[in-house]
Amino acid sequence: MQISLINPYVVKILIALRPEDSxxxxxxxxxxxxxxTYRWVRExxxxxxxxxxxxxxxxxxNNRFYxxxxxxxxxxxxxxxxxxxxxxxxxxxxxxFTKTDAVFVWTKGGYNIGRSKEHYPFFIKVKQDDRILFExxxxxxxxxxxxxxxxxxxxxxxEDIKLELCAGVPVEPLDTTIEFMKKYIYNFQPALEMVGExxxxxxxxxxxxxxxxx
Length: 214
Prior knowledge:
There is one protein chain. The chain is of the alpha+beta class. The protein is 44% helix and 16% strand. Strands 3-4-5 form a three-stranded mixed sheet. A two-stranded antiparallel ribbon has the order 1-2.
């Protein structure tokens, strides 16, 4: 096994791999060209971490390199807030951020409330059709779902998802998020003003004594 096998592309491939997969599907999920994905998958085959079966690639979960890499990811990132945000894109599922996280996304990280390392829920919606896949990845990576403390996904499984992209991040539509903030205005009054200024929305809300744009 070459030391070059230890790189971010290989780690992403092993994270993104499903029990049966294709190189093309993996390439799309990790946002890497087919050619480079093929190259690293072939290297992983040489290391025994994956094998080809009926034109599919199959992870070899008892392979030492596979086990050690996934164990490293779990040990290092399973409690990391940033990892919970970023890893969802590797799952290839339909999801969006909602509630407090929708506010966080639309304010470009400018407003976050009611969370700490002791209690940090990520509010997301996942399409019901993708529930099994979502739970598979969470179990594989040691990511927690619907807990009461620590870092975890607070997830709703729904039949259909209406979403928009904010800086490439799937999130509930801005108008839906505004309605959520208005419903809990005592928590989100400053965020409403921020969103109004950022997106040219007239909120009828004034939190700061003097608007920085006045």
